[in-house]
What does this fold into?
Amino acid sequence: MEPLLKVENLRIELTTRTGVAPVIDNLSFELGAGESISFVGESGCGKSMTALGIMGLLPEKVGRIASGSITFNGEELTTASPKRLRDIRGNDISMIFQEPMTSLNPVYTVGEQIAEVIRAHQGLSRKAAWNQAIELLDAVRIPNAKGRVSDYPFQMSGGQRQRVMIAIALACEPKILIADEPTTALDVTVQAQIFDLLNDMKRQTGASIIMITHDMGAVAEMAERMIVMYAGRKAEEGPVEQTIEHPRHPYTRGLISCVPHIMSTISEERHALTEVPGIVPSLSDFGQNRCLFASRCNMVTQKCLEERPPEKPFANGQKAACWYAEEV
Amino acid sequence: MSNETLVSVENLGVRFAVKRGGGWGKASYLYAVDDVSFEIKRGETLAIVGESGSGKTTTALAVARLVEAYQGKVDLDGTDFLSLDPEELRLARAKMQFIFQDPYSSLNPRLRAEQIVREPLDSLGTMDEAEKKEIVDRLFAEVGLRPEQQRLFPHQFSGGQRQRIGIARALATQPDLIICDEAVSALDVAVQAQILNLLRKLQADLNLTYLFISHDLGVVQHMCDSIAVMYMGRVVEHGSRMDLFNNPLHPYTSALLSAVPSVDKARREATKRILIPGDPPDPVNLPAGCRFANRCPVATDICRQQDPALRDVKGGHKVACHLVGEDAVSPL
It folds into this structure.
């Protein structure tokens, strides 16, 4: 069966003061209908750029899709007209952003902002759209939706604002929901409520979810498959549980073991955290024909510095771009 | 590790006057920190956890007298911190230093790294230049920065390196207590691990005492010896790391722990998520009873009528909940 979304050899270039850099470098992945995948990695690894590329929202004049293809439901998006992309955005593919305060318009009520999406995409009347906005607020579990629909964003808590964002994103029952760090700005109990809500919504509407995060715990909780990004490239991809259990790329292993997790049993003894030394390379170093993780890797050899490692597939569906993936 | 108490905080209270509706009405207060008490032993780490608005940062600021408390006592190694006059306080602050959350805004962009680290020593005014230089050199080595980096300005460092400068500055005056307010929250996970390891190594080497403020329970679990959980300005549970994580007693603590997503399959399967619906009550018009009652899954009539006090239920494990009996069993 044809996947819902197929990204092939995608290359996104950003023009910076120092030249053109491939912020996404030869990325391929697929997303099935009803599937949920997670993109993980540190800041500056290209997670958000992937999402913006799919949405056709790359920063104008700075970012562009240089090569590769993105097909949604069999339709090529990289060559689609701006009008067609506008149709797809919000209708078929929608996105929720990290900061629920800055992504809502402060001078419109939340009801107006939800209704606007419904009217733009479904051509409903003002009144019908307003009523649907109330239903949506209710669906994202805002208590007293009828009363709160006329509230302005500043009258709501962070968690409620993120629910409004989710309501807007789900207004047209999209086939794909892209959530870019949807809970990073929120408290952990609110995060739990939002995850719960997203999972319920996914079950009800059958939408696919792409979640971008830096939190392995969130990945384990929310996704079936994960893609680890490093310096604009896919470092590893695989089923979440097996990949966390046995990562095949040293970067994935580092990402998991450098975080102090709460395990099922807490012991008195504590060990130093495994460090991944150094930091993500700067954009000007992206795109070189070598392993970009080599400078931080404890398994590095001469080969890693001379040639970009190809993706090695494993029988369980894991794939890792490391010369020594079998040994990790 | 000694058993000596370094910091003792008693009945600390911070309130902010809030104006409601204007006019000549009676002043109403928001009690950001309400009757908070805890102790920290020398060489140990106490973590204060809680969600935004719970009062954890205000508690830390009040301990360092960066906001003024209206009641209570802060004793640091025999010095009554809250009764010092400004000049005494300036000198006493050498014993209590801060590491801030944002390594971008907490360093003066116009000073070189070396000047930033030296500034606390300049302010003490008790050393000559040669002594100060020696200390700065040693601090740079201790926090893992190279000597030639002393001449650089903050913008020339990465976030993790800036946090190292902030740590070196905090260590300069050889403090007894270091308050880390979300010290690693702004950092990427790999860099966060480097800083956490550094903080633990420094603690072991220099016998430092930390007051560690964080919303990240994974980090807290790794760093602390004991934990105070705050909710709406109150400490609702206070105990050792093992007690708190293995046997949480307050329903809020349980909900908080259950909300943390985990990579550990065994934990995910063993943990039943306790969702707490709704929002915390209005902090200016607090309810008569327990502040958590309106969201608590097991609240009873007494919870809505009487404010529970923090009491010791089992060998130093304290909880403010009516429903926890002498047997120290969670009411959930």
Q: What stands out?
A: The mean pLDDT of chain A is 92. Chain A is about 30% helix and 25% strand. The longest strand of chain A covers residues 19-31. Residues 5-80+206-320 of chain A form a domain with the Rossmann fold fold (CATH 3.40.50.300).
